[in-house]
Request: fold
Amino acid sequence: MLDLRSHVSRIVSSANQLALPPGAAAEGKFRALRAADTMAASWRRCMEGYRFDPGAKFRIESVSEAELKLQREANDELIHFARPEIDAMFGAVSLSGFSISLGNIDGYIISERANYNPEFYSEVERAGTAWAEPSAGTNAIGTCLVERQPVGVYTNDHFFYEFSALSCASAPLFSPDDELLGAINISIRNPELQRETLKVVLGLTSGLADRIGERMFRKAFRRNYILKFATGPVDHGLIAFDGDFQLVGLNHAAREMLRDRVQLARVRSLWAVFERDHRLIDLARLGGAELTLHLQKGGDAITVSLSGPMEVPSAGARPAASADPAPRMRPAPAPARPSARVLTLDDCAGSDPRMTTNVRFVRRVLGGSLPILLLGETGVGKDAFARAVHEESPRRAAPFVAFNCASVPDTLIDSELFGYGSGAFTGARREGSPGRLVEADGGTLFLDEIGDMPISQQTRLLHVLESGEVTPLGSGKPRRIDVQVIAATNQNLEAQIARGLFRQDLYYRLAGAVIDIPALRERTDRRELIEAVFASLAEGRRLTLAPDALALLMNHDWPGNVRELRHVLNRAVHVCEGGVLTARDVAIRPGARMAAAVAPGPFAAAPVSPMSFAGAEACGPEIEAAGSARHAIAAAEREAIVATLARCGGNVKAAAAALQLSRATLYRKLQRYQIVH
Reply:
């Protein structure tokens, strides 16, 4: 182990000597560095990106017990699948002094099995500590989450000298649909550990991650057939398909290996990946069999093992059409609705004069087929209002079909909305698909986020609305339909029309009745809404809302509106330990006003753009389920950070002070939301 002076000298010189590949763009420099040398690239990120000093005294961040409990609840599914594998592995590695920990997507340790022998145990790695790279510098968990691949960090490879007695090996954990969930970590505090030993431990860690991922995948696709094949010394690809040989899921390893062969938005058939094999005709007899399949177009031969469904689907059940052939498992699932009761129009109106006028107007036009256009910020309850309109209309006995125009890839909107005939394209279901328009025949079609519909699909939708007929893809037979169309958007459609992104004639066709739903901060019945939401979430518990908590809630801007309110109160109800929910339980700061507020009016002004200052990247992958409360909070928080950085000229220190965050916390959020400053 090096002394402090040598440690600092090595890190600084190695990071500075790391050269960019020729022609590497400035904004992509860290990605280029990453490929060249993992450790040196991480050290350079720490110095240039996070402004860390390798010789500085460092204290690891940690969260309170209440916050740790909340994080564990948000990741309970991941913990459930990881625990059996961790327990089995711990029995072997603990004898040598190693501990095992589980980190979530934000780098917090949420579970651990530790060797508490003081000779080996490191107190800094206890549950609740923060190991994201922007918080703790180069370390196995944090750097693994950045790299999305296994990482071993040996003693002085850690950026901060305080951690130089530690050696750690981490491997990423991916959900069945390839979302990064966190990392599994094996570590020891032993400055005499040999580097070769850590390499062996890294292999054990990667194998552990592979087994945890397989547990999650098999549970997600328990009603399907699964092919398993090796992609590395300890890694395995998994492909799930149904009885018609249609692909329904691929794990991370399979996607990486077949990246050039499988375009998940288009490829549906197993035989688009492998050459047809007559032995698979009778799937029921092949459970547990091992056989060799050949990749399409003269590809390699791969030895696979086939396993049958662990659970028989219920009668009549069929998988729902999806843009991605795997059900979503999110790092932090959105909180469940507290009640299954559908809100009425009177519930939506409350005592707010504008909403009362809206409801009165809607009731006058109910009964016909006049399209309704709902305008308003994200989270104001446009979907609940649309459902309430349907439930009060003469069509309430017919289907209410919701279609989110922003959550389906452009290439799939055509088939999802308008349907397709038998054999319309490779991978299509043999019986075809009616599409959402036909499914809503006689009832209501709710087109959410209509402002995000591609212009090419807007033309088809306009034709359907004007003719009352829909022609499925690959079929020449139009079908007459009768639907009540309710569209909704938080976009400025006038600006979209001016930029050529939204058809003016479609707007006039949809805007039969325009309803502007006010933001929560503008509603005169805000207090009633807060108390009603609190009462529904606290149902079954003897909880009261303290005056200081109510005052804090009343004074907040609520950029995420009612959806954000539900999330904040749901969290507060879970965190509250007594019978009175106080301001301490509410995760918003007094006087903190987020910058994502949108101006009121029939056409809300466009929110602050994530590209509104130099150096900001386009918004990264969705981190929460679209339309969920967590998604609204995350989107509002990202916009607030981007706007604050813009006001501060990109100065992170000033932005952190303005947002009332520590610099480490802000850097962690910059990484999470993929904001380059």
